[in-house]
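User: My advisor, Dr. K., asked me to get a structural model of this assembly before our group meeting. I'm new to this, so sorry if the format is off. These are the inputs:
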Amino acid sequence: MPPPTPPTPPVRRGRPGRPGHDREAVLAAAVELFTRQGYAATSVDDLARALGVTKSAVYHHVGSKAELLALALDRALTGLEAAVDDTAAAAGSAYSRLHEVVRRSVEVLVAEQPAVTLLLRVHGNSEVERRALARRRGIDERLAGLVRAAAEEGSLRADLDPHLVSRLLFGTVNSLVEWYRPGGPVDAEQLADAVAAMCFDGLAERSDDR
Amino acid sequence: MPPPTPPTPPVRRGRPGRPGHDREAVLAAAVELFTRQGYAATSVDDLARALGVTKSAVYHHVGSKAELLALALDRALTGLEAAVDDTAAAAGSAYSRLHEVVRRSVEVLVAEQPAVTLLLRVHGNSEVERRALARRRGIDERLAGLVRAAAEEGSLRADLDPHLVSRLLFGTVNSLVEWYRPGGPVDAEQLADAVAAMCFDGLAERSDDR
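Assistant: The format is fine. Below is the predicted structure of the whole assembly, which you can bring to the meeting.
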């Protein structure tokens, strides 16, 4: 018979709070509500209700609704910026770096899907949103630069404008938030492979060596 | 000499109304507001304000807010269903029909962008929305069937699951509503060509015959 284990408080990241309702849980609930019903339409009351706690329990973890929005957008942006930074620092052709940043972006999107979904729906209605949009534009410009570099080295088909290619490619990556749900039959790596396969090599079966 | 023509009232579709604020203009304003701020958050008062008319002027053209939603969703769905119907009736391989339905879907999306954008944001919160989602599922199932047929005839690469291919392909088409704006440097036909080129043939430059 195993010895009785002494009661221990559950280990939590962030500031302590009601079990299961730490800062991380508050953030997750906020992202879900902001995405589903809009940031403006979501009150701290709604959030407390969704978590089954009091409003003051929410304020125990975060200073304001805007802080939650800033935290969520920062999480999505930090992941996407890291994908671009790491790839920019890598060796190899612009094509191989572009291929890799597409795969990495898909992986970030899967890992941080709720936060990325929220980021993609932000319209710049507040200072927090405008700062996030400016960072997002910075990422988009670096990705577009990589597409141009790949076109200039001659590794992308020449009949499509690089600006249009950039829109199509990252539009395809972003569109995953609309339907992909983690935990299904396709994992993040398979999804990244499939997106890269379609976008770079195409869906058509070919007799030549791929 | 032709006989004098009697004065005729201007020809308008729908019920007559204030010039420039006919049923079509009311519908366009409603789609814009529903998409931007959500159907639930939009009142007929908001709509009247956006059009610069009275609420009763709006009700002169439409019976209710729900009727406007139904009209807009029907417009998007009718266009997309026609693309699938026409392609299903066409001769040729499943691959050529799939290629064509992708191109046609892009064209519908450009022609009816506001209505398609609204359709893609509908979540089934009312009977009108649920009926629209059921029609959308019907379209998606027929598109997935065409992808399966193309895979079975051996014209799609064999390393990707047809269900995943269908999601990626039409996710890419749908993602155009997020960034494409008519009137720019790329017209509907060029956009359709570019989407089909990327998805079927891939972005990578190849030395072999495409």
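One thing worth pointing out at the meeting: Confidence is low (pLDDT under 50) at residues 1-20 of chain A.

User: Perfect, thanks a lot.
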